[in-house]
Amino acid sequence: MTVLVAAQQTETPDALPSRQARLAYRDGRVASTAGIAPGFVQGNLAILPEKYASAFHRFCQLNPKPCPIIGMSDVGSPHIPALGADLDIRTDVPRYRVWRDGEVVDEPTDVSKHWRDDLVTFVLGCSFSFEEALLDEGMPIRHIEHDVRVPMYRTNIACSPSGPFAGPMVVSMRPFKSADAIRAVQITSRYPAVHGAPVHLGHPHLIGIKDISKPDYGDPVPVADDEIPVFWACGVTPQSVINAAKLPFAITHSPGLMLVTDLKNKNMAVI
């Protein structure tokens, strides 16, 4: 089995930590991708039949905070060369979700047997990219400290609809002390292609979260008495709308287990 590495980037594409991560997942390794291949962009997946692709593309345009597109495939192609020369979308994610009629029916580590010639892959920006900038500022990321998946929650924030795609925004949460929360807003505002600034700070109930200790996706993390929860739009949002739309067929990633690309996080910053 290929071993995940955190080696320094070299001139050789084969030695890129991002490619080594993909090879490990291709070999069947299953683990959270938080903190994997530092410096490289990770992405959320939404793989849909071509008949729904136009409406979903419009949905992403109408909802750029949760659904910033960083890559798309040609119809039927499992490859997106702009995101990785040898990337195979069917095998290179730690775990997938296969959906039928809006329900998860399988969670394999390889979707080759589910692949169809009419599928279009959308890769959406992931907040793991701006976490690097937060860490560089010495700000703690709780789920990385605890080696768990980031907690994610369905909210009462409605997305703008497009065709069959409509439903609530999903958010990811990271707790910070008040001063650090302000700094987190400043830092993440520079990364609109990977969700940008938070959509909400504090008071989870105001966005429909009844119990912060029970995320809808990912794992719970502790929030100290002197901290406030900070919520960012999340690329798992398409999974909530696929469920709401009862879409006949779709494939996504399992929340927190992302596609590791060869794009660089530093190139996602606008200033």
UniProtKB/TrEMBL annotation:
Keywords: Lyase. Coiled coil: none annotated. SUPFAM superfamilies: PSTPO5379-like (SSF160920). Its EC number is 4.2.1.-. It comes from the Bacteria. The keyword Lyase applies. GO terms for molecular function: lyase activity. HAMAP family: Hydro_lyase. Belongs to the D-glutamate cyclase family. This is Putative hydro-lyase AXW67_23955.
